[in-house]
Write a structure and sequence with these properties.
Blueprint (H helix, E strand, L loop, with lengths): L1 H35 L7 H87 L2 E2 L3 H6 L8 E2 L1 H21 L5 H15 L1 H20 L5 H10 L3 H11 L8 H7 L19
Antiparallel strand pairs: 1-2
Amino acid sequence: MKNFHKTESINWTVNLTVIAAILWTALLTLIYLSKFNGGITSDLTRWGQTGDFFGGVLNPMFGLLSLLALLTTLRQTEKSQQQSEEELRLSREEMKRSADALSEQSKDLKQQTFERTFFELLRFYNEIVDGFVTESNWLASRVFNQPERSPGLGRDALLSYCGQFKRRLLLHMEENQDEEQLEAINKVWLEYYKDKQNQLGHWFRSLYNILKFVDQSGIENKKFYTDLLRAQLSSPELLAIYYNANSDMGRDKLLPLIDKYNLLKHLDKCQIMFDIGER
């Protein structure tokens, strides 16, 4: 549409120039005829003089009109170029806004997909914990000074597991008093884990995969989601995670993620039953 207006404007300029040239020529002709009583003559000298007159007057005028037409055309071309540049700028801005909108939609979709997967993993994790079963939690109830419940289910069962492990750990420490505490935890936990691998193995793998999934994702606020995970953890869970992370089972992969996201922030170290010192 704008190119059409540009062409129309140039055509008007050319037409006006032609009209001006015709009018100017007609005006000079009338002046010549009225002043010099001109008519058709066979005198070559008169023809030469007439030619010189019209040439001397019309040529500069035609040149001026041609120059004005050229300048007008150039001006119109310049305006058209400026309009094209403005249209190009607006087009680029619109494309950028569209790209930003698509990027935001992609980001939202990515966030929704992440959250859907995260909460599904969290639900699966809780199902594993709820599936823990033990015949009795008598020992755990004595160690943690909590009411006895038998049989133990879910987190109550995990409470019993921790009580059983602590008993083994204390016996081992009494027999190996010169052994480093973390080394003792490692040895006893590896032995205890063999007995409870069917119950604990699936749980720790689920926990590790949740942490790895969050850590390797492209979301911005990763700690927000690991804090949600931490809020799900009971005291027996924190304790068992501590033991596993400080053993050969979890020291290389699980422990770095636990430290990175401060997963054991609310662990009561008094429940470990002896002074573990600082890692």
